[in-house]
Amino acid sequence: MSVRTLPLLFLNLGGEMLYILDQRLRAQNIPGDKARKVLNDIISTMFNRKFMEELFKPQELYSKKALRTVYDRLAHASIMRLNQASMDKLYDLMTMAFKYQVLLCPRPRDVLLVTFNHLDAIRGFIQDSPTILQQVDETFRQLTETYGRLSAGEFQMIRQTLLSFFQDLHIRVSIFLKDRVQNSNGRFVLPVSGPVPWGTEVPGLIRMFNRKGEEVRKAEFKHGGNYVAAPKEGSFELYGDRVLKLGTNMYSVNRPVETHMSGASKNLASQTQESIAPNPLAKEELNLLARLMGGMEIKKPSGPEPGFRLNLFTTDEEEEQAALTRPEELSYEVINIQATQDQQRNEELAQIMGEFEVMDQPRRITSKGDDLLAMMDEL
User: Fold this and answer.
1) Residue 370: pLDDT band by 50, 70, 90 thresholds?
2) Which InterPro entries is this protein grouped with (predicted)?
3) Three-state SS sequence of the chain
4) What's the mean per-residue pLDDT of the chain?
């Protein structure tokens, strides 16, 4: 498992979340000024400097349920509100979209180009907000500094860590089903056509060499696909041509998006308890992350700018039905976090927390095992 995976996972899922929210804000005819405020508030919170510094520290991935809690906090960083069913659907769409992108990356290194595609689109959302734009550009610099010198083997380890994180998720998404890139069981269809990875040749030719390294014979074979050479390598510069389209906004054309639990996912639900429940060390890390996210202040609607509820379903009835039919094992609600009793680890955690300024102290901490959401509310 790679300890350099979390920033890529967080930023790409966050990018997908912004794509979906932007599409739903337009679909529900939310006034432009309110929609811009929601996206600006979320992006500003997402790219908070202290939060990014902590995110880029080498660390293991959090569990699906723990990470879902972070995005719940992030989605409510403005005047917009989502109920449980819509938040579940939002997270399902985010995770399945990024899983598809990781699966189809031509090279392991291209997961960085997917991330840059998300950041490029995020810049488009905040082009009139130079302060937030500077935050995003600083994160781009951190990505380049952290991942620019990694070897192909290290990127392969990152890709494998991401695929392990997504391996039990088989949620059907209407866009993928209509485009025939996903089967009815929720598994993706890998293409046998298109450009090959940059730096490789189109399959179909076998070369044989002698002991001196001289080519002595060639043989051709039918590969059964329709491959072409890659036109050029995607740019890893700040404002370059990424070439790769994975990670761009698939909701730019307005069309309804539905999610359905596949039979495989329902059967696996009871088998995924271990991956859903955070381990003690991950819980400590998440507690620190939650404290850093104390800046994600949930704004209470007031004054001339009241809040509003966003529905990720076509109707309220569909939303209510989705809440009733979702398997309980896959419902992301409150996470009970029991801090480990390892004294040394607790002292190290307290020392790290002490480096960050916390404006408001919790009113009362009943135990080290306070639930994460309650802990966030105390910040």
Assistant:
1) very low
2) OSCP1
3) CCCCCHHHHHHHHHHHHHHHHHHHHHHCCCCHHHHHHHHHHHHHHHCCHHHHHHHCCCCCCCCHHHHHHHHHHHHCCCCEECCHHHHHHHHHHHHHHHHHHHHHCCCHHHHHHHHHHHHHHHHHHCCCCHHHHHHHHHHHHHHHHHHCCCCHHHHHHHHHHHHHHHCCCCEEEHHHHHCCCECCCCCECCCCEEECCCCCCCCCEEEEECCCCCEEEEEECCCCCEEECCCCCCCCCCCCCCCCCCCCCCCCCCCCCCEEECHHHHHHHCCCHHHHCCCHHHHHHHHHHHHHHHHCCCCCCECCECCEECCCCCCHHHHHHHHHHCCHHHCCCCCCCCCCCCHHHHHHHHHHHHCCCCCCCCCCCCCCCCCHHHHHHHC
4) 79
